[in-house]
Amino acid sequence: MIAVAGVTKAYQDGAVRRQVLRGVDLVVARGETAAVVGPSGSGKSTLLNILGALDVPDAGSVRVDGVDLTRSRPSALAGFRNRSLGFVFQFHQLLPDFTAIENVMMPGRIAGRPTSSLSAQALTLLDQVGLADRAGAFPQQLSGGERQRIAICRALVLEPAVLLADEPTGNLDSRSGEQVLELLDTLRRRRDTTMVLVTHNPEVAKRCGKVLRLDGGRLKALGE
Amino acid sequence: MGFVWHIAVRYFRSTRADAHIRALSTLTAGGLAVGTAALVLALAALAGFQNLLLEDLARHTPALQIELGGGSVPGSALQGAATTDPVRGLAALAAATNGVAGVQELLYARGWLADGDRPIAVEVLGYEKTPPPWIPVQGEATPGLIVPVSVALRMGLAVGDMVRVVSPRPGLTPVGHQPRTRMLPIDLIYMSDRAEDTDDPVLVPLEQASALFARGDRRLDLTLAPEADPEQVGDFLRQGIDPTVATVTTWRQANRALLFVLRLEKGLVFSAVALIVAVASFALLAALSMVLSSKRAEVGVLAAMGAPPARLQRVFLLLGALLSVGGAGFGGAAGAGLAAFLDRYRVISTPSDVYVVDYVPFLVRGTDVLVVLVVTVLFTAAAAVIGARKASLLHPVEAMRSART
Ligand SMILES: Nc1ncnc2c1ncn2[C@@H]1O[C@H](COP(=O)(O)OP(=O)(O)O)[C@@H](O)[C@H]1O
Ligand SMILES: [Mg+2]
């Protein structure tokens, strides 16, 4: 589960100090899916980075899957990200030197998993998003939607306890978007995965257990 | 290492894709190839030359020398007590020492050769058994003189002529002090293989020489068994010999200055040629930095997915190794192969009258090749460590952001 209390974050942009988060509180129960909506530049990605132990808040506490992220050493956080978190970045961020299936396997390779079982698992995931036949393709040979689906498979390959997704269906047509949401739902049900999705899509938000709006540096619940 | 190899090998392949990185990695591999080849070749040429020189030196210098103290002390001691000649004692001690194969007693003195009334000053070398190995004469000791061709020419002497050997030490005769002299036949005339023949000695059988030149410098030349170490035998002998009576010198000590110059020469040539490797290592650093900056976002993603900084650093260390090992390995092998070829087929010739041989010899030594490889590895490793460090300092969010803008 995720428990965030009183998180603030400011960026120094030259002479200007931009207070992006002004005291964010958030609780997402285990197996629950929360959608975060809000205008562009409101700090959604910043919040997600803090939840993902990629950035540190100026103040406040962050507990994710039982780990206090503000009190852990960087090396411990690297292991935590690999083991417990799945990321879908706002821009797909696939590695161009690796094929689709190699990209999907990458978190497992970092974890030191045997490649045989890993590739079987990756292929299953690719099949679930309709990309099994594109497994050997390199990212530049794929469309934007295909890349995003592969990025999602990559986030899911180690079946993480917590999935953080920054606009996972942003570049997808409705059919592919539907496939992705199916996949996320399957995972949530099977592994009791806690999810935080940043989205602009009301359809996506509607399917989530909890919808929160980030505006003016604070998070407000829109509905359960 | 699965992950590290996986990434590094793929990044290595991707260095072909970007024109700038390709140029730098080619410069790295090419520079290392040229550098190591040049180093191996230069060391082989030096080793070949120095080897000849040392072989020549070994012919002229005994492995070990025992010299009676240069002053008057042993001389007077010798004269007084004919019963206990310290040279005999030392010779016996040396002969009984482990590793000593042979002992030859020698006596050096200055004297004159006189034919009629024109004496000329000569170096006299008293010897026993056989003429010392550096005198180019075959065979046993002869009862008469062995004269260098320079002396024979000056005095118009031929084999069989009788000539008078004159010592500066006077003998007491009924008509007062007279120089000690002895008439001896010339048995052989030899031609020195040294460039400067002014000091070529006249060889006199030791018995005659000691009688004539009791104040000459007496010396023992030791030949050693092939497996014996001159330094060890020398140390052992020194323990048994009073240093005021005699000093023990190994051929290395006797030729310290020359050996130092040879080492210096080797070091200077090595340092100069190693600059090529240094430049290639800078190219490696540049190539690694360019790969890293072109892969910033991706390395950020890997870090975000939990790859520890130390492992990302190792990816770039390994990439550095992959970029250098081919060039360095090829260069080392090519240098050694070329050196062996040049030596085997005597490709480079020299005028035969200036040197012992008429071609440039090359000698590839395992230790030399090893030193070249170690130096190359040190240079490239330093470059790779500096280049790879940046990978471990990358902040994932910053890295991913920077790639978008
Ligand atoms: N590293 C940074 N340095 C300076 N400003 C930043 C940095 N990261 C984000 N910001 C700023 O913080 C604000 C929130 O950014 P972000 O979290 O990406 O918003 P969103 O994802 O909601 O569009 C933006 O104005 C952005 O420019
Ligand atoms: Mg964003």
Describe this structure in words.
The complex is a heterodimer of chains A (about 220) and B (about 400). Chain A has about 220 residues and is an alpha/beta fold. Chain A is built from seven helices and ten strands. Chain A has one domain: Rossmann fold. In chain A, helix 5 packs parallel to helix 6. The mean pLDDT of chain A is about 90. Chain B is of the alpha+beta class. Chain B folds into two domains: about 5-55 and about 260-405, no CATH class; about 65-250, no CATH class. Helix content of chain B is about 55%, strand content about 20%. Chain B has 13 helices and nine strands. Chain B has helices at about 1-15, 20-60, 75-80, 85-95, 150-155, 205-210, 230-240, 250-255, 255-295, 295-305, 310-345, 365-390, 395-405, and strands at about 65-70, 100-115, 120-125, 145-150, 160-175, 175-190, 200-205, 215-225, 245-250. In chain B, helix 1 packs across helix 11 (about 310-345) and helix 2 packs across helix 11 (about 310-345). The radius of gyration of chain B is 33 Å and the shape is elongated. The interface of A and B includes residues 89, 93 and 110 of A. The structure holds adenosine-5'-diphosphate and magnesium ion. Magnesium ion binds next to helix 1 of chain A.
In short:
The complex is a heterodimer of chains A (224) and B (405). Chain A is an alpha/beta fold. Chain A has helices at 44-51, 74-84, 100-111, 115-128, 144-156, 174-191, 202-206; strands at 2-13, 16-28, 33-37, 59-64, 67-68, 85-88, 162-166, 194-198, 210-215, 218-223.
Which labels suit this protein?
heterodimer, A: 224 residues, alpha/beta, Rossmann fold, globular, B: 405 residues, alpha+beta, 2 domains, nine-stranded mixed sheet, 13 helices, binds adenosine-5'-diphosphate, binds magnesium ion
